[in-house]
Amino acid sequence: MNSKTIGLLLRVSPVLVGMAALLGPSAASAKEAPNYQAQTQPPKAEAVTQTKGVKTSNTSGEVLSVDTEPELFAQVTSVDELSQQQAEDQLQSQVTSVSQLSDVQPTDWAFQALQSLVERYGCIAGYPDGTFRGNQATTRYEFAAGLNACLDQLLNIIPPGGGPTEEDLAVIRRLQEEFAAELATLRGRVDALEARTAELEANQFSTTTKLKGEVIFAVADTFGNEAGGINSANPDIDAGDDGLGDDTQTIFADRVRLTLDTSFTGKDRLRTRLQGRNITQFRRGLTGTNMTRLGFDGTNGNDIGIDDLYYQFQASDNVEVIIAANSTEPRDFIDVVSPIASSGSGSISRFGRLNPVLRQPDGSAGLGLNLGLGDIGELSLAYLADSGSASNPAVKNGLFNGQNAALAHLVLEPVDAVKLGLSYVRYYAPAGEVNLSGSTGDFFATEPFGDTATSANSFGAELQFEVSDSFIVSGWYGLMLASAQDNGALPANRTGDAVNEDDDATIMTGAVQFSFPDLGGDGNLFGLVAGIPPKVTSHDVTDRAEGDTSYHFEAFYRAQVTDNISITPGAFVILNPANDSDNDTQVVGTIRTTFKF
What we know:
Porin, 3 domains, 16-stranded antiparallel β-barrel, 12 helices, disordered N terminus
């Protein structure tokens, strides 16, 4: 007898002794063996954990029926089978019940039992076809959540329908026992969540400040002789007579804006915008006219200072209140009905962005109201005073005696693709502060009576039609009826008549915009603008009505390089600058790179 045989006998002898003690000399124990039906292979470890009288699925996918408590020893007929069974017992001893499993697998008895309940009672309907889809493992807590849902569903159907079968109740009782700890934990978590939800409802919002940034790098230049009609002391002398040429050089400049939006209730916003910039304005002193200004220009030597400062909140469901303290303009809180109004990502020219009527006054403090009109639109009302004047207590300054404007702006949306804006502005400015055109027109359109105090009733109409997702047509018309509020003499060496109180002047402007969103890629924008910058069409003072008309033509293409970076090359042409056909055509070109974060 070799060593292997001795080792085998030592391993099986205790088992043989145990068999003898249990089975005795009689072979009748074979009658007590469980009756397995449709069994084609030895039972797996799962068979040991079956409950008497319960039918379920074994690992081979066949139905197993257990009549009595299983006794595995009755099936052992040889030493080889005993060794195989002993190995299976060792595996089984590692996991003796479902409660010892860290995860529940689709092949586990508990998983299949719950799946059966789900499919028959519809207690979990998380999938479109209403099944549990038992092909994925689930954590014990996820499983317990499903079991809990089934228990609730079964309780609901007991009174009317008589409830589940005895077999189902047996399965449920066992599942409850196996997952008692998880069910208790789940209920505890639900209680904790309910407590936290109640706390959140009592304290729905905490003060939050969000930072948004925008940085612009720009290369720009103008081309064409300086317009002489406004630069000269005599408005009738053109650039050729003055001998003025193209005095501008190519610039590389920047603008930085850091916007802090703070909310205290979740329905309000305190906006504080910090700004530093050094983009020189292509205005009268350089080109002879403000018509050549960029849409994103301005300079403070890159010193960081407070720009926009205002607070807005919901007074009611349909009423929003805006309190402006510094550098706020109507376009900051009203819909100007222009898809290319943004200075950082829209039109490259100041004139091409929006109706100049909505620039009165430019950089203000005051009060605004937005009144919701349901689905048809919104009515905005505002009183704004120039920021510099509003904080100055000196004569002809302050909140009501400096440059100011009262605004009413109605936006109607009769259909989803159409917006119509109607604007009225009552404007006043003391001597030396008049700017009717918002720095988009020539000298007479901006200051029709020179340094004389001026008031105006201005009317605007804006239209936007979204033809398709990739094509938008928009535009505006503006009419300003200005009146002198005092007598005024012409500056030295200026020809024409002096200004008398109540002298009148009429100024008009208009433009059409074509926008092509996502042209060539998501986020891209191709834009075209054609229009007439503000022009004096009639004037009570001799020689101040302008016989010629300036024309503005613009094209730009914004390429969205990444979600945060866009590059916009573009150019615009001014024909008859300063509304004088004797002036040479001027061209302004730029490449604007915008970073947003």
